[in-house]
Amino acid sequence: MSSALKITLILSLLLSAGSHAADTAPRKTLAPFASEQALSSYLKQLQARQAALQKEQQKLQRATAQYAYSAQYVAAAPAPPAPMVAKAAPAPSAEAAESVTNVQTAGVDEGGIVKVHGKHLVMLRRGKLFTVQVGGNALQPVSSLDAYAPGSDPSGSWYDEMLLDGDTLVVIGYSYSRGGTEIGLFDIDANGKLAYRATYHLRSNDYYSSRNYASRLIGSKLVFYSPLSLNLRRGDPFGGFPALRRWRPDAVPSDFKRIAPATRIYRTDEEPEPGFGLTLHTVTVCDLAQRDMRCEATAVMGPQGRVFYVSGESVFVWTTRRGSDSGVFRIPLDGTAPSALKVAGAPVDQFSFLESDDGHLNVLLRAEGQGDAMWDGARGRGDMALLRVPLTSFSDGRDSAPASSYQPLPGGGGYALQNRYVGPYLLYGNPGNPGRRKADQAWPRQPLYAVRWADAASVQALSLPHGVERIEALGNDAVVIGAQGKDLHFSSIRLGAQAAIATRYIRADAAQGESRSHGFFYKPHTASEGVIGLPILGADERPGSSRPAASVLYLRNSGLTLTELGALAARPGPAPDDGCRASCVDWYGNARPLFLQGRVFALLGYEVVEGALRDGQIREVRRISYAPIASTVR
Length: 634
Hints:
Helices cover about 10% and strands about 45% of the residues. It is mainly beta and about 625 residues long. The protein has a domain at about 510-634. This is Beta propeller domain-containing protein.
Protein backbone atom coordinates (compact mmCIF):
# COMPACT_ATOMS: atom_id res chain seq x y z
CA MET A 1 0.00 0.00 0.00
CA SER A 2 1.25 3.49 -0.83
CA SER A 3 2.72 5.43 2.05
CA ALA A 4 0.33 8.24 1.10
CA LEU A 5 -2.37 6.11 2.66
CA LYS A 6 -0.69 5.87 6.03
CA ILE A 7 -3.18 6.93 8.63
CA THR A 8 -1.12 9.85 9.84
CA LEU A 9 -1.37 11.50 6.43
CA ILE A 10 -4.91 10.40 5.77
CA LEU A 11 -6.13 12.07 8.91
CA SER A 12 -4.93 15.44 7.61
CA LEU A 13 -7.22 15.30 4.59
CA LEU A 14 -10.87 16.22 4.26
CA LEU A 15 -13.74 14.03 3.15
CA SER A 16 -15.21 14.57 -0.27
CA ALA A 17 -18.76 13.36 -0.37
CA GLY A 18 -19.24 10.26 -2.51
CA SER A 19 -22.18 9.86 -4.82
CA HIS A 20 -24.95 7.53 -3.79
CA ALA A 21 -24.87 4.23 -5.61
CA ALA A 22 -28.06 2.48 -6.59
CA ASP A 23 -26.11 -0.61 -7.61
CA THR A 24 -23.81 -1.97 -4.90
CA ALA A 25 -22.08 -4.59 -7.05
CA PRO A 26 -18.28 -4.25 -7.02
CA ARG A 27 -16.48 -3.16 -10.19
CA LYS A 28 -14.27 -6.25 -10.00
CA THR A 29 -13.93 -9.21 -7.67
CA LEU A 30 -11.11 -11.27 -6.27
CA ALA A 31 -9.99 -14.20 -8.39
CA PRO A 32 -10.24 -17.75 -7.02
CA PHE A 33 -7.68 -20.46 -7.55
CA ALA A 34 -8.37 -22.22 -10.83
CA SER A 35 -7.91 -25.74 -9.46
CA GLU A 36 -6.71 -27.82 -6.53
CA GLN A 37 -3.40 -28.19 -8.33
CA ALA A 38 -2.98 -24.42 -8.61
CA LEU A 39 -3.76 -23.99 -4.91
CA SER A 40 -1.37 -26.76 -3.91
CA SER A 41 1.41 -25.30 -6.05
CA TYR A 42 0.93 -21.87 -4.48
CA LEU A 43 1.08 -23.29 -0.96
CA LYS A 44 4.27 -25.22 -1.77
CA GLN A 45 5.87 -21.99 -2.97
CA LEU A 46 4.89 -20.29 0.27
CA GLN A 47 6.24 -23.23 2.28
CA ALA A 48 9.59 -22.97 0.49
CA ARG A 49 9.78 -19.23 1.20
CA GLN A 50 8.88 -19.72 4.86
CA ALA A 51 11.48 -22.50 5.24
CA ALA A 52 14.19 -20.31 3.72
CA LEU A 53 13.19 -17.43 5.96
CA GLN A 54 13.25 -19.69 9.02
CA LYS A 55 16.80 -20.81 8.19
CA GLU A 56 17.93 -17.19 7.85
CA GLN A 57 16.32 -16.32 11.17
CA GLN A 58 17.97 -19.29 12.91
CA LYS A 59 21.33 -18.35 11.42
CA LEU A 60 20.93 -14.78 12.65
CA GLN A 61 19.88 -15.98 16.10
CA ARG A 62 22.94 -18.25 16.40
CA ALA A 63 25.25 -15.43 15.34
CA THR A 64 23.61 -13.03 17.79
CA ALA A 65 23.82 -15.55 20.63
CA GLN A 66 27.51 -16.27 19.91
CA TYR A 67 28.32 -12.56 19.87
CA ALA A 68 26.42 -11.99 23.11
CA TYR A 69 28.26 -14.89 24.81
CA SER A 70 31.66 -13.61 23.69
CA ALA A 71 30.92 -10.09 24.86
CA GLN A 72 29.72 -11.40 28.22
CA TYR A 73 32.89 -13.54 28.66
CA VAL A 74 35.25 -10.65 27.85
CA ALA A 75 33.46 -8.21 30.12
CA ALA A 76 32.80 -10.59 33.00
CA ALA A 77 36.18 -10.38 34.79
CA PRO A 78 36.51 -6.64 35.32
CA ALA A 79 32.84 -5.87 35.68
CA PRO A 80 31.24 -5.74 39.14
CA PRO A 81 28.15 -7.90 39.67
CA ALA A 82 25.04 -6.27 38.31
CA PRO A 83 22.25 -5.35 40.73
CA MET A 84 19.15 -7.56 40.70
CA VAL A 85 16.26 -6.18 38.71
CA ALA A 86 12.76 -6.56 40.10
CA LYS A 87 10.25 -8.33 37.87
CA ALA A 88 7.34 -6.29 36.62
CA ALA A 89 3.91 -7.16 37.99
CA PRO A 90 1.72 -9.10 35.53
CA ALA A 91 -0.14 -6.77 34.05
CA PRO A 92 -41.88 -15.58 11.61
CA SER A 93 -45.12 -15.87 13.75
CA ALA A 94 -46.17 -12.78 15.71
CA GLU A 95 -44.97 -14.45 18.91
CA ALA A 96 -41.70 -15.63 17.38
CA ALA A 97 -41.12 -12.23 15.81
CA GLU A 98 -41.04 -10.67 19.29
CA SER A 99 -37.30 -10.80 19.76
CA VAL A 100 -35.61 -10.56 23.15
CA THR A 101 -32.15 -9.97 21.64
CA ASN A 102 -30.63 -6.50 21.25
CA VAL A 103 -29.21 -6.98 17.74
CA GLN A 104 -26.97 -4.64 15.75
CA THR A 105 -28.73 -5.06 12.38
CA ALA A 106 -32.47 -5.59 11.91
CA GLY A 107 -33.13 -9.00 10.39
CA VAL A 108 -29.74 -10.39 11.44
CA ASP A 109 -30.16 -12.39 14.65
CA GLU A 110 -27.14 -12.97 16.89
CA GLY A 111 -26.26 -15.98 19.00
CA GLY A 112 -27.31 -15.39 22.61
CA ILE A 113 -28.20 -17.07 25.90
CA VAL A 114 -31.99 -16.64 25.72
CA LYS A 115 -34.47 -16.89 22.83
CA VAL A 116 -38.24 -17.17 22.39
CA HIS A 117 -40.06 -20.13 20.83
CA GLY A 118 -43.81 -19.62 20.69
CA LYS A 119 -45.04 -19.64 24.29
CA HIS A 120 -41.69 -20.57 25.78
CA LEU A 121 -38.44 -18.96 26.80
CA VAL A 122 -35.39 -21.03 25.90
CA MET A 123 -32.21 -20.57 27.95
CA LEU A 124 -28.65 -21.81 27.47
CA ARG A 125 -26.68 -21.91 30.71
CA ARG A 126 -23.68 -23.82 32.01
CA GLY A 127 -23.80 -26.55 29.38
CA LYS A 128 -27.54 -27.21 29.46
CA LEU A 129 -30.70 -26.08 27.66
CA PHE A 130 -33.88 -25.13 29.51
CA THR A 131 -37.40 -24.13 28.50
CA VAL A 132 -39.88 -22.15 30.60
CA GLN A 133 -43.53 -21.72 29.64
CA VAL A 134 -44.69 -18.09 29.63
CA GLY A 135 -47.76 -18.34 27.38
CA GLY A 136 -51.24 -17.94 28.82
CA ASN A 137 -49.93 -16.02 31.84
CA ALA A 138 -47.90 -19.06 32.90
CA LEU A 139 -44.40 -19.12 34.38
CA GLN A 140 -43.37 -22.75 34.65
CA PRO A 141 -40.20 -24.77 33.90
CA VAL A 142 -40.88 -27.38 31.24
CA SER A 143 -37.83 -29.17 29.91
CA SER A 144 -34.06 -29.38 30.17
CA LEU A 145 -31.38 -31.20 28.20
CA ASP A 146 -27.61 -31.31 27.91
CA ALA A 147 -26.39 -28.86 25.27
CA TYR A 148 -24.05 -31.49 23.82
CA ALA A 149 -24.38 -34.90 22.18
CA PRO A 150 -25.50 -37.81 24.38
CA GLY A 151 -22.51 -39.94 25.30
CA SER A 152 -19.96 -37.26 24.42
CA ASP A 153 -17.41 -35.86 26.86
CA PRO A 154 -18.12 -32.12 27.29
CA SER A 155 -14.90 -31.37 29.16
CA GLY A 156 -12.75 -28.91 27.27
CA SER A 157 -15.81 -27.47 25.52
CA TRP A 158 -17.70 -24.21 25.95
CA TYR A 159 -21.32 -23.80 24.89
CA ASP A 160 -21.83 -20.06 24.46
CA GLU A 161 -24.54 -19.13 21.98
CA MET A 162 -27.95 -20.23 20.82
CA LEU A 163 -30.17 -19.46 17.82
CA LEU A 164 -33.67 -20.53 16.79
CA ASP A 165 -35.00 -21.20 13.29
CA GLY A 166 -38.58 -22.43 13.44
CA ASP A 167 -38.50 -25.62 15.52
CA THR A 168 -34.74 -26.05 15.13
CA LEU A 169 -32.63 -24.96 18.07
CA VAL A 170 -28.92 -24.40 17.36
CA VAL A 171 -26.26 -24.39 20.08
CA ILE A 172 -22.86 -22.93 19.21
CA GLY A 173 -19.81 -23.93 21.21
CA TYR A 174 -16.07 -24.30 20.93
CA SER A 175 -14.32 -27.56 21.74
CA TYR A 176 -10.63 -27.42 22.59
CA SER A 177 -10.55 -31.20 22.88
CA ARG A 178 -12.21 -31.86 19.50
CA GLY A 179 -10.73 -28.82 17.79
CA GLY A 180 -13.25 -26.42 16.34
CA THR A 181 -16.68 -24.86 16.51
CA GLU A 182 -19.33 -27.30 17.71
CA ILE A 183 -22.82 -26.95 16.25
CA GLY A 184 -25.54 -28.81 18.13
CA LEU A 185 -28.98 -29.20 16.56
CA PHE A 186 -32.03 -29.82 18.73
CA ASP A 187 -35.75 -30.07 18.07
CA ILE A 188 -38.24 -28.10 20.13
CA ASP A 189 -41.99 -28.65 19.94
CA ALA A 190 -45.00 -26.48 20.72
CA ASN A 191 -45.03 -27.79 24.30
CA GLY A 192 -41.44 -26.73 24.93
CA LYS A 193 -40.04 -30.27 24.89
CA LEU A 194 -36.44 -30.62 23.71
CA ALA A 195 -34.88 -33.47 21.75
CA TYR A 196 -31.34 -33.94 20.51
CA ARG A 197 -30.89 -34.24 16.72
CA ALA A 198 -27.23 -34.06 15.69
CA THR A 199 -23.85 -32.46 16.34
CA TYR A 200 -21.42 -31.13 13.75
CA HIS A 201 -17.86 -29.92 14.09
CA LEU A 202 -16.69 -26.99 11.99
CA ARG A 203 -12.93 -26.62 11.73
CA SER A 204 -12.04 -23.22 13.17
CA ASN A 205 -9.85 -21.26 15.52
CA ASP A 206 -11.29 -20.10 18.84
CA TYR A 207 -14.07 -17.63 18.04
CA TYR A 208 -14.36 -15.94 21.45
CA SER A 209 -14.61 -12.16 21.55
CA SER A 210 -15.58 -10.05 24.55
CA ARG A 211 -17.66 -7.84 22.22
CA ASN A 212 -18.60 -9.76 19.08
CA TYR A 213 -20.70 -12.91 18.61
CA ALA A 214 -19.66 -16.03 16.74
CA SER A 215 -22.91 -16.78 14.90
CA ARG A 216 -25.64 -15.00 12.97
CA LEU A 217 -28.98 -16.16 11.58
CA ILE A 218 -30.54 -14.57 8.48
CA GLY A 219 -33.72 -16.37 7.54
CA SER A 220 -32.67 -20.03 7.60
CA LYS A 221 -29.02 -19.23 6.88
CA LEU A 222 -26.70 -19.92 9.80
CA VAL A 223 -23.60 -17.75 9.30
CA PHE A 224 -20.14 -18.06 10.85
CA TYR A 225 -16.96 -16.12 10.38
CA SER A 226 -13.74 -17.86 11.40
CA PRO A 227 -10.09 -16.97 10.86
CA LEU A 228 -8.24 -20.24 10.15
CA SER A 229 -4.49 -20.03 10.77
CA LEU A 230 -2.46 -22.03 8.26
CA ASN A 231 0.77 -23.65 9.44
CA LEU A 232 3.06 -23.63 6.42
CA ARG A 233 6.19 -24.68 8.30
CA ARG A 234 5.16 -28.18 9.21
CA GLY A 235 2.48 -30.68 8.41
CA ASP A 236 -0.18 -30.55 5.74
CA PRO A 237 -1.55 -27.00 5.27
CA PHE A 238 -4.78 -28.49 3.93
CA GLY A 239 -5.33 -29.85 7.45
CA GLY A 240 -6.30 -26.30 8.42
CA PHE A 241 -8.73 -25.65 5.57
CA PRO A 242 -12.49 -25.17 6.14
CA ALA A 243 -14.09 -28.54 6.81
CA LEU A 244 -17.13 -30.08 8.51
CA ARG A 245 -17.90 -33.44 10.05
CA ARG A 246 -20.91 -34.97 11.73
CA TRP A 247 -20.11 -36.17 15.22
CA ARG A 248 -20.29 -39.82 16.18
CA PRO A 249 -18.81 -41.60 19.21
CA ASP A 250 -15.91 -43.00 17.19
CA ALA A 251 -15.29 -39.85 15.12
CA VAL A 252 -11.77 -39.43 13.76
CA PRO A 253 -10.01 -36.45 12.12
CA SER A 254 -10.38 -38.02 8.69
CA ASP A 255 -14.16 -37.61 9.01
CA PHE A 256 -13.73 -33.89 8.25
CA LYS A 257 -14.76 -33.07 4.68
CA ARG A 258 -13.65 -29.86 3.03
CA ILE A 259 -16.43 -27.36 2.38
CA ALA A 260 -14.34 -24.80 0.47
CA PRO A 261 -12.84 -26.15 -2.77
CA ALA A 262 -9.99 -24.29 -4.44
CA THR A 263 -12.48 -22.46 -6.63
CA ARG A 264 -13.96 -20.81 -3.51
CA ILE A 265 -10.61 -19.74 -2.05
CA TYR A 266 -9.36 -16.30 -3.01
CA ARG A 267 -6.26 -14.16 -2.58
CA THR A 268 -5.29 -10.56 -3.21
CA ASP A 269 -2.25 -9.20 -5.02
CA GLU A 270 -0.35 -8.76 -1.73
CA GLU A 271 2.14 -11.43 -0.72
CA PRO A 272 2.01 -12.80 2.84
CA GLU A 273 4.20 -10.95 5.31
CA PRO A 274 7.54 -12.72 5.82
CA GLY A 275 7.67 -14.37 9.22
CA PHE A 276 4.00 -13.77 9.95
CA GLY A 277 1.13 -16.22 9.77
CA LEU A 278 -1.23 -16.70 6.88
CA THR A 279 -4.92 -16.77 7.69
CA LEU A 280 -7.91 -18.06 5.75
CA HIS A 281 -10.67 -15.57 6.56
CA THR A 282 -13.61 -17.91 6.20
CA VAL A 283 -17.35 -17.30 5.96
CA THR A 284 -19.45 -20.44 6.33
CA VAL A 285 -23.16 -20.53 5.52
CA CYS A 286 -25.22 -23.51 6.70
CA ASP A 287 -28.74 -24.27 5.50
CA LEU A 288 -31.05 -24.98 8.44
CA ALA A 289 -34.04 -25.57 6.17
CA GLN A 290 -32.84 -29.17 5.79
CA ARG A 291 -32.73 -31.56 8.74
CA ASP A 292 -29.31 -32.80 7.64
CA MET A 293 -27.36 -29.59 7.80
CA ARG A 294 -25.32 -28.64 4.74
CA CYS A 295 -22.62 -25.98 4.79
CA GLU A 296 -20.54 -24.14 2.20
CA ALA A 297 -17.59 -21.87 2.84
CA THR A 298 -15.80 -19.03 1.08
CA ALA A 299 -12.31 -18.01 2.20
CA VAL A 300 -9.87 -15.20 1.48
CA MET A 301 -6.15 -15.44 2.30
CA GLY A 302 -4.82 -12.57 4.37
CA PRO A 303 -2.91 -11.47 7.48
CA GLN A 304 -3.95 -12.46 10.98
CA GLY A 305 -5.63 -9.42 12.57
CA ARG A 306 -9.38 -9.08 12.04
CA VAL A 307 -12.66 -7.45 12.94
CA PHE A 308 -15.84 -8.70 11.27
CA TYR A 309 -19.30 -7.28 10.71
CA VAL A 310 -22.37 -9.01 9.27
CA SER A 311 -24.88 -7.01 7.27
CA GLY A 312 -28.00 -8.43 5.68
CA GLU A 313 -26.13 -9.52 2.53
CA SER A 314 -22.40 -9.71 3.28
CA VAL A 315 -19.72 -10.29 5.86
CA PHE A 316 -17.08 -7.56 6.00
CA VAL A 317 -13.68 -8.60 7.36
CA TRP A 318 -11.05 -5.99 8.20
CA THR A 319 -7.45 -7.22 8.32
CA THR A 320 -4.36 -5.32 9.40
CA ARG A 321 -0.75 -5.89 8.46
CA ARG A 322 2.23 -4.42 10.26
CA GLY A 323 2.09 -0.63 10.41
CA SER A 324 -1.22 0.83 9.28
CA ASP A 325 -1.58 -1.09 6.02
CA SER A 326 -4.99 -2.76 6.06
CA GLY A 327 -7.51 -4.41 3.82
CA VAL A 328 -11.25 -4.93 4.00
CA PHE A 329 -12.93 -7.93 2.36
CA ARG A 330 -16.58 -7.99 1.36
CA ILE A 331 -17.73 -11.63 1.31
CA PRO A 332 -21.32 -12.03 0.00
CA LEU A 333 -23.57 -14.53 1.74
CA ASP A 334 -24.96 -15.84 -1.56
CA GLY A 335 -21.65 -17.52 -2.45
CA THR A 336 -20.64 -15.08 -5.19
CA ALA A 337 -17.05 -13.86 -5.41
CA PRO A 338 -15.66 -11.61 -2.67
CA SER A 339 -14.20 -8.19 -3.35
CA ALA A 340 -11.66 -6.10 -1.47
CA LEU A 341 -10.30 -2.63 -0.90
CA LYS A 342 -6.97 -1.42 0.45
CA VAL A 343 -7.48 0.84 3.43
CA ALA A 344 -5.67 2.16 6.49
CA GLY A 345 -6.18 2.06 10.24
CA ALA A 346 -8.34 -0.36 12.24
CA PRO A 347 -11.96 -0.46 13.45
CA VAL A 348 -12.80 -0.78 17.14
CA ASP A 349 -15.29 -3.65 16.85
CA GLN A 350 -18.32 -4.72 14.80
CA PHE A 351 -20.20 -1.60 15.91
CA SER A 352 -17.66 0.53 14.02
CA PHE A 353 -19.30 -0.64 10.74
CA LEU A 354 -22.49 0.39 8.99
CA GLU A 355 -23.57 -0.73 5.53
CA SER A 356 -25.98 2.13 4.92
CA ASP A 357 -29.05 2.11 2.70
CA ASP A 358 -27.40 4.59 0.32
CA GLY A 359 -24.93 1.91 -0.83
CA HIS A 360 -21.93 2.92 1.28
CA LEU A 361 -19.74 1.28 3.88
CA ASN A 362 -19.04 3.52 6.87
CA VAL A 363 -16.30 2.56 9.35
CA LEU A 364 -14.96 4.34 12.43
CA LEU A 365 -11.17 3.88 12.54
CA ARG A 366 -8.25 4.26 14.90
CA ALA A 367 -4.66 4.47 13.72
CA GLU A 368 -3.82 1.17 15.43
CA GLY A 369 -5.85 -1.86 16.45
CA GLN A 370 -5.47 -5.57 17.15
CA GLY A 371 -8.79 -6.97 15.96
CA ASP A 372 -11.64 -8.10 18.21
CA ALA A 373 -10.50 -11.59 19.27
CA MET A 374 -10.70 -12.27 23.01
CA TRP A 375 -10.38 -8.83 24.70
CA ASP A 376 -8.46 -7.14 21.88
CA GLY A 377 -11.42 -4.97 20.88
CA ALA A 378 -10.86 -2.82 23.96
CA ARG A 379 -7.28 -2.11 22.91
CA GLY A 380 -6.18 0.24 20.17
CA ARG A 381 -4.91 3.77 20.00
CA GLY A 382 -4.03 6.73 17.84
CA ASP A 383 -5.85 9.31 15.78
CA MET A 384 -9.36 8.64 14.56
CA ALA A 385 -11.21 8.95 11.26
CA LEU A 386 -14.47 8.00 9.59
CA LEU A 387 -14.07 6.04 6.37
CA ARG A 388 -16.99 6.28 3.95
CA VAL A 389 -16.77 4.50 0.61
CA PRO A 390 -19.34 3.39 -1.99
CA LEU A 391 -19.76 -0.38 -2.10
CA THR A 392 -19.09 -0.10 -5.83
CA SER A 393 -15.51 0.95 -5.04
CA PHE A 394 -14.69 -2.59 -3.90
CA SER A 395 -12.77 -4.49 -6.56
CA ASP A 396 -10.07 -7.14 -7.00
CA GLY A 397 -8.02 -5.87 -4.07
CA ARG A 398 -5.61 -3.72 -6.10
CA ASP A 399 -7.47 -0.46 -5.52
CA SER A 400 -7.17 1.76 -2.46
CA ALA A 401 -9.80 3.89 -0.80
CA PRO A 402 -8.96 7.47 -1.81
CA ALA A 403 -7.61 9.80 0.85
CA SER A 404 -10.74 11.93 0.42
CA SER A 405 -12.78 9.02 1.82
CA TYR A 406 -11.36 9.58 5.30
CA GLN A 407 -12.75 12.30 7.57
CA PRO A 408 -10.50 13.13 10.53
CA LEU A 409 -12.31 12.94 13.86
CA PRO A 410 -11.41 14.22 17.33
CA GLY A 411 -10.74 11.97 20.30
CA GLY A 412 -7.78 9.79 21.12
CA GLY A 413 -9.52 6.45 20.78
CA GLY A 414 -8.46 5.31 24.25
CA TYR A 415 -8.98 1.99 26.00
CA ALA A 416 -12.47 0.43 25.77
CA LEU A 417 -13.77 3.02 23.28
CA GLN A 418 -17.53 2.72 22.69
CA ASN A 419 -19.14 3.49 19.32
CA ARG A 420 -22.58 3.09 17.76
CA TYR A 421 -24.54 4.25 14.73
CA VAL A 422 -27.97 5.56 15.72
CA GLY A 423 -30.12 6.91 12.90
CA PRO A 424 -28.10 9.49 10.92
CA TYR A 425 -25.47 9.80 13.66
CA LEU A 426 -22.28 8.05 14.67
CA LEU A 427 -21.75 8.39 18.43
CA TYR A 428 -18.52 7.50 20.22
CA GLY A 429 -16.67 8.14 23.46
CA ASN A 430 -14.41 6.67 26.13
CA PRO A 431 -15.29 5.29 29.56
CA GLY A 432 -12.19 6.88 31.07
CA ASN A 433 -10.32 5.38 33.99
CA PRO A 434 -12.93 3.89 36.37
CA GLY A 435 -10.53 3.73 39.29
CA ARG A 436 -9.61 7.41 39.00
CA ARG A 437 -13.26 8.39 38.57
CA LYS A 438 -14.21 6.63 41.80
CA ALA A 439 -11.32 8.16 43.72
CA ASP A 440 -11.62 11.66 42.30
CA GLN A 441 -15.02 13.13 41.46
CA ALA A 442 -13.26 15.97 39.61
CA TRP A 443 -11.43 13.58 37.26
CA PRO A 444 -11.64 15.01 33.70
CA ARG A 445 -14.97 14.43 32.01
CA GLN A 446 -15.28 12.22 28.94
CA PRO A 447 -17.06 13.90 26.00
CA LEU A 448 -19.52 12.13 23.76
CA TYR A 449 -18.80 12.85 20.10
CA ALA A 450 -21.64 13.00 17.58
CA VAL A 451 -21.13 13.14 13.82
CA ARG A 452 -23.54 12.77 10.92
CA TRP A 453 -21.96 9.90 9.03
CA ALA A 454 -23.46 10.77 5.62
CA ASP A 455 -21.46 13.99 5.27
CA ALA A 456 -19.31 14.29 8.43
CA ALA A 457 -19.21 18.05 7.86
CA SER A 458 -18.98 18.82 11.57
CA VAL A 459 -18.46 16.97 14.83
CA GLN A 460 -20.17 17.86 18.09
CA ALA A 461 -18.57 17.21 21.48
CA LEU A 462 -21.22 16.87 24.18
CA SER A 463 -19.92 17.35 27.70
CA LEU A 464 -21.04 14.52 29.98
CA PRO A 465 -20.37 14.30 33.72
CA HIS A 466 -19.67 10.58 33.37
CA GLY A 467 -17.75 8.10 31.27
CA VAL A 468 -19.12 6.49 28.11
CA GLU A 469 -19.49 2.78 28.87
CA ARG A 470 -22.48 2.01 26.67
CA ILE A 471 -24.31 3.69 23.78
CA GLU A 472 -27.74 2.37 22.76
CA ALA A 473 -30.62 3.46 20.54
CA LEU A 474 -33.89 4.74 21.97
CA GLY A 475 -35.86 4.65 18.75
CA ASN A 476 -34.44 7.55 16.72
CA ASP A 477 -32.57 8.92 19.73
CA ALA A 478 -29.98 7.45 22.08
CA VAL A 479 -29.00 6.79 25.68
CA VAL A 480 -25.42 6.92 26.95
CA ILE A 481 -24.60 5.01 30.14
CA GLY A 482 -21.51 5.35 32.27
CA ALA A 483 -20.11 5.76 35.76
CA GLN A 484 -19.04 8.81 37.71
CA GLY A 485 -17.64 8.02 41.12
CA LYS A 486 -19.79 5.22 42.53
CA ASP A 487 -22.93 6.23 40.64
CA LEU A 488 -24.27 5.03 37.30
CA HIS A 489 -25.54 7.76 34.95
CA PHE A 490 -28.05 7.41 32.09
CA SER A 491 -28.00 10.41 29.72
CA SER A 492 -30.68 10.59 27.02
CA ILE A 493 -29.48 12.17 23.77
CA ARG A 494 -31.83 13.92 21.33
CA LEU A 495 -30.70 13.34 17.75
CA GLY A 496 -32.35 15.99 15.60
CA ALA A 497 -30.74 18.58 13.36
CA GLN A 498 -28.17 18.75 16.17
CA ALA A 499 -27.33 16.25 18.88
CA ALA A 500 -28.19 17.47 22.37
CA ILE A 501 -28.30 16.10 25.91
CA ALA A 502 -31.95 15.85 26.95
CA THR A 503 -32.11 14.57 30.55
CA ARG A 504 -30.15 12.45 32.97
CA TYR A 505 -31.06 9.76 35.49
CA ILE A 506 -28.56 8.79 38.21
CA ARG A 507 -28.62 5.45 40.01
CA ALA A 508 -26.63 5.83 43.22
CA ASP A 509 -24.05 3.20 44.23
CA ALA A 510 -24.41 1.16 41.04
CA ALA A 511 -22.44 -0.19 38.10
CA GLN A 512 -23.33 -2.06 34.94
CA GLY A 513 -23.86 -5.76 35.56
CA GLU A 514 -23.29 -6.68 31.92
CA SER A 515 -20.97 -5.09 29.36
CA ARG A 516 -22.10 -7.01 26.25
CA SER A 517 -24.64 -5.47 23.90
CA HIS A 518 -27.17 -8.22 24.70
CA GLY A 519 -27.32 -7.12 28.34
CA PHE A 520 -29.39 -4.07 27.35
CA PHE A 521 -32.90 -3.98 25.87
CA TYR A 522 -35.24 -1.15 24.96
CA LYS A 523 -38.93 -1.93 24.47
CA PRO A 524 -40.63 0.92 22.56
CA HIS A 525 -44.32 1.56 23.13
CA THR A 526 -44.60 4.55 20.79
CA ALA A 527 -42.11 6.57 18.76
CA SER A 528 -41.16 8.57 21.87
CA GLU A 529 -42.01 6.26 24.77
CA GLY A 530 -40.76 2.93 26.02
CA VAL A 531 -38.96 1.04 28.78
CA ILE A 532 -35.21 0.45 29.25
CA GLY A 533 -33.87 -2.67 30.96
CA LEU A 534 -30.25 -3.12 32.11
CA PRO A 535 -28.56 -5.48 34.61
CA ILE A 536 -26.80 -3.63 37.42
CA LEU A 537 -24.62 -4.41 40.42
CA GLY A 538 -23.55 -2.43 43.45
CA ALA A 539 -20.71 -0.03 42.66
CA ASP A 540 -18.14 -2.24 44.42
CA GLU A 541 -19.52 -5.58 43.25
CA ARG A 542 -18.21 -7.56 40.32
CA PRO A 543 -19.91 -10.24 38.19
CA GLY A 544 -18.98 -13.69 39.43
CA SER A 545 -18.70 -12.63 43.08
CA SER A 546 -20.74 -14.21 45.86
CA ARG A 547 -23.98 -12.96 44.31
CA PRO A 548 -25.41 -15.37 41.73
CA ALA A 549 -26.57 -12.61 39.36
CA ALA A 550 -27.25 -8.91 39.00
CA SER A 551 -30.49 -7.04 39.45
CA VAL A 552 -32.27 -5.68 36.40
CA LEU A 553 -33.10 -1.98 36.53
CA TYR A 554 -36.05 -0.61 34.54
CA LEU A 555 -36.42 3.02 33.42
CA ARG A 556 -39.31 4.66 31.65
CA ASN A 557 -38.48 6.83 28.64
CA SER A 558 -41.11 9.50 28.03
CA GLY A 559 -39.98 11.99 25.43
CA LEU A 560 -36.36 11.37 26.54
CA THR A 561 -37.20 12.04 30.20
CA LEU A 562 -35.92 9.01 32.12
CA THR A 563 -37.60 7.96 35.37
CA GLU A 564 -37.00 4.87 37.48
CA LEU A 565 -39.63 2.16 37.53
CA GLY A 566 -37.72 -0.10 39.90
CA ALA A 567 -35.61 -3.24 39.78
CA LEU A 568 -36.08 -7.00 39.89
CA ALA A 569 -33.37 -8.64 41.99
CA ALA A 570 -31.88 -12.10 42.26
CA ARG A 571 -32.61 -14.04 45.42
CA PRO A 572 -29.72 -13.47 47.86
CA GLY A 573 -27.50 -16.34 48.86
CA PRO A 574 -25.12 -18.74 47.15
CA ALA A 575 -25.84 -20.11 43.70
CA PRO A 576 -27.37 -23.62 43.64
CA ASP A 577 -25.15 -26.64 43.12
CA ASP A 578 -26.04 -27.66 39.58
CA GLY A 579 -23.37 -30.33 39.09
CA CYS A 580 -21.99 -28.36 36.16
CA ARG A 581 -19.94 -30.41 33.67
CA ALA A 582 -19.29 -27.88 30.90
CA SER A 583 -19.28 -24.11 30.33
CA CYS A 584 -19.13 -23.44 34.05
CA VAL A 585 -18.23 -19.75 33.63
CA ASP A 586 -20.82 -17.27 32.33
CA TRP A 587 -18.59 -15.64 29.70
CA TYR A 588 -21.69 -14.20 28.00
CA GLY A 589 -23.23 -13.05 31.28
CA ASN A 590 -26.25 -14.47 33.08
CA ALA A 591 -28.72 -11.59 33.38
CA ARG A 592 -31.08 -10.15 30.76
CA PRO A 593 -34.15 -7.87 30.73
CA LEU A 594 -37.00 -9.57 28.87
CA PHE A 595 -40.11 -7.93 27.43
CA LEU A 596 -42.52 -10.48 26.05
CA GLN A 597 -46.20 -10.51 25.13
CA GLY A 598 -46.90 -7.39 27.18
CA ARG A 599 -45.12 -8.77 30.26
CA VAL A 600 -41.84 -7.87 31.93
CA PHE A 601 -39.29 -10.43 33.13
CA ALA A 602 -35.74 -10.52 34.42
CA LEU A 603 -33.48 -13.47 33.68
CA LEU A 604 -31.18 -13.67 36.72
CA GLY A 605 -28.93 -16.71 36.68
CA TYR A 606 -31.19 -19.72 37.24
CA GLU A 607 -34.18 -17.53 38.10
CA VAL A 608 -36.86 -15.94 35.95
CA VAL A 609 -38.56 -13.13 37.84
CA GLU A 610 -41.77 -11.53 36.59
CA GLY A 611 -42.69 -7.96 37.42
CA ALA A 612 -45.82 -5.90 36.95
CA LEU A 613 -46.07 -2.14 36.46
CA ARG A 614 -48.44 -0.59 38.98
CA ASP A 615 -48.71 3.08 39.96
CA GLY A 616 -45.53 3.95 38.09
CA GLN A 617 -43.47 1.24 39.82
CA ILE A 618 -42.42 -2.23 38.79
CA ARG A 619 -43.02 -4.81 41.50
CA GLU A 620 -42.24 -8.50 41.65
CA VAL A 621 -45.22 -10.73 40.94
CA ARG A 622 -43.55 -14.15 41.11
CA ARG A 623 -40.35 -15.99 40.38
CA ILE A 624 -39.33 -19.49 39.44
CA SER A 625 -36.05 -21.37 39.50
CA TYR A 626 -35.20 -23.60 36.58
CA ALA A 627 -31.95 -24.82 38.16
CA PRO A 628 -31.17 -28.50 37.63
CA ILE A 629 -30.76 -30.74 40.66
CA ALA A 630 -27.11 -31.67 41.03
CA SER A 631 -27.75 -35.37 41.55
CA THR A 632 -29.56 -35.64 38.22
CA VAL A 633 -26.69 -34.31 36.15
CA ARG A 634 -23.74 -36.07 37.77
